[in-house]
Amino acid sequence: MANSSSSPVPPGRVFELASLRGVAPRFLAAAVLAVIAGAVVLQLRPATGARTKRVLGPTELVEHVDAEALPFEARVDTGATTCSVHAAKWAIEDEADSMIDNVGKVIRFCVENGQGGAEWLERKIVELATVTTSEGEEQRYKVFMTLRCQGVEKRVLVSLNDRSHMQYPLLIGRNFLEGDFLVDVGDYDPVQHVR
Questions:
Q1: Is residue 159 pLDDT above 70, yes or no?
Q2: Where does the chain show beta strands of DSSP type E?
Q3: Which pTM does this prediction carry?
Q4: Which of 143, 147, 139 is nearest to 124 (CA)?
Q5: Cα 46 to Cα 42: distance, rounded to the nearest angstrom
Q6: In the structure, what pLDDT confidence band is assigned to residue 69 with cuts at 50, 70 and 90?
Q7: In this structure, are residues 74 and 181 in contact, taking their beta carbons and an 8 Å threshold?
Q8: Which of 62, 72, 89, 186 could cross-link 149 (Cys pair, CB 3.0–4.6 Å)?
Q9: What are the backbone dihedrals phi and psi of residue 99, each rounded to the nearest 5 degrees, phi first?
Q10: Do 61 and 45 form a contact (C-beta atoms < 8 A)?
Q11: Rounded to an integer, what is the distance from CA 182 to the centroid of its chain?
């Protein structure tokens, strides 16, 4: 005789299905987490042929290499957008009273590495930046310079600044670090990083 019940599920199975009701969402959540974790692991693992990132400490030996190599003990600052170098003196060809009017002109400036080394350079002023420091806001000229650290050489914008009152004449910002370096300030041995 046929079962007159309208339920397609046999009576003994109703409890089993009801207890499985929460399993599907939990299984789905676990599957999604597994996929995300796998994607994160793949991103952390360098792809074949990908560059290995170098690890920098809080200070590094960095060379300015546009002319003759001039070494600097540099402070690595992940909070700084761009690099900044100590410019002891400078002169601008046909200097205007307003700093903004000097953008595009040639500036001749002396960089000092804090170890007795100095070099006069000539560059075109690329931009005028307003920089926020611990002492407030100030305007600085930016020029292109080529810097080298741990074998990586990059041409980056560098702001010219009087850093004579600071311990490090060169500050390395994110525009140099990006894509090639990681910064680890813990367990740092500065002797290891002297080249």
A1: yes
A2: 54-56, 59-64, 70-76, 83-92, 106-112, 118-124, 127-133, 136-149, 152-161, 170-172, 181-183
A3: 0.69
A4: 143
A5: 8
A6: confident
A7: no
A8: 62
A9: -60, -40
A10: no
A11: 8
